[in-house]
Specification:
- The chain has about 425 residues and is mainly alpha-helical.
- It has helices spanning about 5-25, 30-45, 60-80, 90-95, 95-120, 125-135, 165-180, 180-195, 200-230, 240-245, 250-260, 265-280, 285-320, 325-345, 350-360, 365-375, 385-415.
- The protein has a single domain (about 5-415), classed as Up-down Bundle (Na+/H+ antiporter like fold).
- The chain has 17 helices and no strands.
- It is a multi-pass membrane protein.
- InterPro entries: Cation/H_exchanger_TM.
- This is Sodium:proton antiporter.
């Protein structure tokens, strides 16, 4: 992308990020919907070439940009959750019951169903599994309309969430991005090493268990160290909470991700665990709200920038390899697979209306692009044009459907709860 186009697209994204939330507050239209539409229109204009729209030629750029967006979103999500998770208290784990059900039952069912549909459609087994893994996790970036608003602080703050729908969708989106990685690696191993029998034990022991545990533990350690320094250090210069230095959110994000990756764990899980651990310290302190605000604003800017570029790419050939099979998979995921998998996972959990809302609002988004670009860097067959077209179509479909329904459905649930 030329420097002039960078400034043009970034400046437009920043302006829209400032005005759209308030402008669209009363309409069944979300900011992501508008940005994708604006990008589509820009793509139809004689915009100069030079933008990184071809995923085959710009895979690394796409991977790193989308990785950053997801990381910022995970930090914001972790700081936004008020419901504590005490690892040694069974009652605390039970309060997260709906989240565990979606992760342990709903997500594998979704991966298996999408992979089966892709395989039936003619995709190679490795590509089919990757499609299931990339599209299964809900997205913390585009699901802001159905997530908790932010941390409650002050002397009268609540220590728990009173909105089960928003809490469940938020906590699920924070955790399932890291938990999708074992299945992404399974697709990579299937494409590069062949038969499952050659790598099954390694996958279970290292990719499914060890890397998850390492990612969570490193995030907890980094979160505790940073929280101690920020709130209770003997050195006044280290007690940044007293000064309200909200850029600590970015420092914590980068540190947790770096430590988690260097240790061999999943950095996404490390970032979310770090944010949750930091949030657990001095829960009533206003510093949490300040940090969350920084992460939220940066996430909004980066998200709208990516969506604007995605919209331009859609009208300039990104959907060129999309066929009716890819369309069918995307439609099935949004309207059938996720709702059914979510409903089965939440059977006997939550009230009926809440259960339906959580099952339906499985927003797909930028995380799916990251997984696809990451896997494509390890095996060429996992970066086919058909996969890019199918994933892009599914994201746009999710943006339109979930974006249009989020505000009215959540408003109705709020009124029913009151």
């Amino acid at each position: 992308m030329t420097a002039d186009l960078v400034y043009l697209v970034a400046g437009g994204s920043l302006l829209l990020a400032i005005v759209l939330p308030e402008l669209l507050d009363r309409w069944a239209v979300s900011a992501p919907m508008v940005l994708v539409g604006v990008g589509l229109l820009l793509g139809l204009t004689p915009l100069p070439d030079g933008m990184p729209l071809d995923p085959q030629e710009n895979r690394a750029t796409i991977e790193h940009v989308t990785e950053l967006v997801v990381l910022v979103a995970l930090m914001g999500v972790g700081l936004a959750l008020d419901r504590p998770l005490a690892l040694r208290q069974r009652a605390s784990w039970r309060r997260w019951g709906a989240t565990w059900r979606l992760l342990g039952i709903g997500m594998p069912l979704t991966i298996g169903a999408v992979a089966l549909l892709a395989w039936v459609a003619g995709a190679p087994p490795a590509a089919a599994l990757l499609l299931g893994a990339a599209l299964a996790p809900t997205d913390p970036v585009l699901a802001s309309d159905v997530q908790v608003a932010g941390p409650q602080t002050g002397d009268d703050h609540e220590v728990d969430e009173d909105d089960e729908v928003r809490f469940t969708l938020t906590s699920e989106a924070g955790l399932n991005d890291g938990l999708a990685f074992p299945f992404v690696y399974a697709a990579i191993l299937l494409a590069t090493e062949g038969a499952v029998s050659h790598w099954a034990l390694e996958w279970v022991g290292w990719y499914l268990i060890a890397k998850v545990v390492i990612g969570v533990l490193t995030g907890i350690v980094v979160g505790r160290l940073l929280a101690y320094a920020a709130f209770r250090s003997n050195s006044r210069s280290l007690r940044v909470a007293e000064r309200g230095e909200s850029l600590m959110a970015l420092a914590a994000l980068v540190t947790a991700y770096g430590v988690g990756e260097v240790a061999g764990g999943y950095g996404f899980l490390a970032v979310f665990a770090c944010a949750m651990t930091f949030r657990s310290a001095e829960r009533s302190h206003d510093y949490h709200a300040a940090m969350h605000q920084v992460a939220e604003r940066l996430e909004r800017l980066l998200t709208l920038f990516v969506l604007l570029v995605l919209g331009i790419a859609l009208s300039r050939g990104l959907l060129g390899s999309l066929d009716w099979k890819g369309v069918a998979i995307g439609v099935a995921l949004v309207f059938l697979v996720r709702p059914l998998a979510g409903t089965l996972a939440l059977h006997g959990c939550l009230e009926r209306g809440e259960r339906r809302a959580v099952a339906f609002f499985g927003v797909r988004g930028i995380g799916s692009i990251y997984y696809l670009s990451y896997a494509a860097g390890h095996a060429d067959e996992l970066g086919s044009d058909w996969l890019w077209s199918t994933v892009s179509f599914t994201i746009v479909l999710s943006v339109l459907v979930h974006g249009a329904l989020a505000a009215p459905v959540m408003r109705r649930l709020d009124l029913a709860r009151r």
